[in-house]
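> call design_seq(struct)
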């Protein structure tokens, strides 16, 4: 990340993630003798302090955005694995053209294979982490849908007034949109890593990597407000 000279002006500013969840506020920095910032200290909403690598933060004017660690790691794997594949392929072509000796080829080939094996192990671990995050998003979406339905019911029977209902309805819809967008991003990243682990051709992976860097998730399909019908039997007293 090319660091902006105004980075220190972010002290005291709120930090949000890419899905507009508030993380906390910038409180301090860990700075190298040459002036480069290594880490940014953030006071979280629960009062705890945590430091994040400066490269994980994006400063846009008065906004401080915490970039997704999973997305950054996915992009790195999608860059590194195809690159090593290409190098190993080029190495083989050099040997076939007798430009290098079989001994040199074998030595470098084993080095590339070892690097690929390690990267794939790490990519699999990341994919397991993505699965957990997808499950978390799915559970949040489920709970938000229940919250929406219950809000509709309480509004329908007159327990929640119109102003409060509209405010709460808008809040829940916003949360649903953000969580759906996050889940879509995670599923896209999982697909890219899965293709790598299955040994998909580097050229196709590179094309899909470009897509994952700037995903354009579809508008989430939000639930229609439920229609609650109440039938008052004869002689029943008003609620």
């Amino acid at each position: 990340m090319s660091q902006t000279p105004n980075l220190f002006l972010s002290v005291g500013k709120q930090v949000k993630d890419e899905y507009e969840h508030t993380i906390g506020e910038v409180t301090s920095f860990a700075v190298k003798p040459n002036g480069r910032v290594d880490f940014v200290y953030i006071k979280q909403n629960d009062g705890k302090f945590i430091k994040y690598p400066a490269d994980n933060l994006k400063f846009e004017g008065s906004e401080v955005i915490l970039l997704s660690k999973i997305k950054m790691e996915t992009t790195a794997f999608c860059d590194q694995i195809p690159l090593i594949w290409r190098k190993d392929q080029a190495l083989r072509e050099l040997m076939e053209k007798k430009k290098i000796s079989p001994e040199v080829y074998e030595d470098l080939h084993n080095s590339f294979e070892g690097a690929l094996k390690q990267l794939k192990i790490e990519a699999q671990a990341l994919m397991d982490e993505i699965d957990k995050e997808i499950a978390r998003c799915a559970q949040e979406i489920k709970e938000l849908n229940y919250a929406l339905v219950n809000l509709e019911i309480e509004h329908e029977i007159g327990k929640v007034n119109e102003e409060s209902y509209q405010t709460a309805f808008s809040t829940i819809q916003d949360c649903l949109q953000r969580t759906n967008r996050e889940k879509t991003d995670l599923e896209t990243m999982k697909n890219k890593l899965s293709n790598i682990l299955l040994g998909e051709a580097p050229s196709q992976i590179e094309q899909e990597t470009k897509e994952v860097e700037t995903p354009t998730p579809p508008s989430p399909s939000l639930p229609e407000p439920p229609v609650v019908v109440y039938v008052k039997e004869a002689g029943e007293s008003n609620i």
